[in-house]
Design goal:
Layout lengths: L2 E7 L4 H4 L4 H8 E2 L7 E7 L5 E5 L6 E2 L15 E7 L4 E5 L2 E5 L4 E4 L6 E5 L8 E7 L7 E3 L5 E5 L8 E7 L10 E7 L5 E2 L3 E3 L3 E8 L7 E6 L5 E5 L3 E5 L4 E6 L4 E8 L8 E3 L1 H10 L1
Length: about 290
């Protein structure tokens, strides 16, 4: 029988964050165990009420159940949802309509949908549906976004170890949303740095979900204000929550893929306050 869990994460002030040891950093900002058989795993953050989740149907379909803390009859009563499949082929059924999702395909589900079911095509190669959800003020249409529909930007260079393709999937250049933005960045072989030069955007929070991290490899995810950076070591299929005051960048021991999800004040993807490596080094001297 399918099950659900929901972890609640409260917002942290950057002054308090400075005193955290590694165990406390991981407790507040690391999200793991997203894909358990026939289980809906949710993490509710108090940064813009952003909700992170994962579901891996194996023996049966799994429903998007509303956790008690939402105080809503249906999960999407007052929310919108983004789904990206990072596993085997599957289907998301929204109010009776089926949306097949292959690997790396996305689905936007608008506010007001009452029934959402997650289904795998095969128990031997189950789908892994990665979820982001935010509060919504308007009901936009549910729509599938394939790789061909994505707004793709090539960035970086192999010489600086950050050659990558940014696939904008659920963004306003592709479809309308209330505040949720999601996309997927694929690092090329030989490149390990993401989001470098890095940035902050106090208008929005963000979550990075790392996958296709090879076994025995890891990603060192950097966070914090420019003068007080810290790091989290992340394994495959783990996520890091980034508050509005924090940089979000990473370097892996191999190339990998990550999904970024944002919410907040605006839908301007380019709204970033940039910090070059030189600026980070200078800020470190001043700390």
């Amino acid at each position: 029988m399918s099950s659900m869990s929901c972890d609640e994460r409260f917002a942290v002030h950057q002054d308090d964050y400075k005193s955290y040891d590694m165990a406390k950093l991981r407790r507040h900002f690391l999200v793991k165990d997203l894909f358990q058989p026939d289980h809906l795993a949710l993490t509710y953050t108090h940064y813009d009420r952003f909700l992170v989740g994962g579901v891996m149907p194996v023996e049966e379909s799994v429903a998007l159940t509303s956790p008690e803390l939402l105080k809503a009859k249906y999960f999407l009563d007052r929310r919108e949802l983004g789904v990206i499949n990072v596993g085997g082929a599957g289907v998301v059924e929204v109010d009776g309509k089926r949306y097949p999702l292959a690997y790396k395909e996305a689905l936007y589900v608008g506010s007001g949908a009452q029934s959402v079911l997650f289904i795998s095509d095969s128990a031997q190669a189950p789908a892994k549906f990665y979820l982001n959800s935010t509060p919504a003020h308007h009901a936009y249409p549910t729509r599938k976004v394939s790789r061909a529909d994505a707004d793709v930007v090539q960035m970086g260079a192999l010489a600086s170890s950050n050659e990558r393709a940014i696939n904008k999937l659920l963004v306003n250049s592709v479809l309308p949303t209330c505040q949720l933005q999601m996309g997927m960045t694929e690092l090329k072989p030989g490149s390990v740095w993401n989001t470098m030069p890095c940035h902050t955007h106090s208008r929005r929070m963000e979550v990075y979900f790392y996958f296709e991290v090879p076994e025995e490899q890891a990603v060192c995810h950097f966070m914090g204000p420019a003068q007080e950076t810290r790091h989290l070591w992340l394994a495959n299929e783990q996520a890091a929550v980034s508050p509005p005051w924090s940089i979000h960048s990473g370097a892996g021991t191999s190339n990998y893929i990550f999904i970024w999800g944002m919410a907040g004040e605006n839908l301007d993807y380019s709204d970033m306050d940039h910090l070059t490596p030189g600026m980070l080094a200078q800020n470190g001297e001043q700390a």
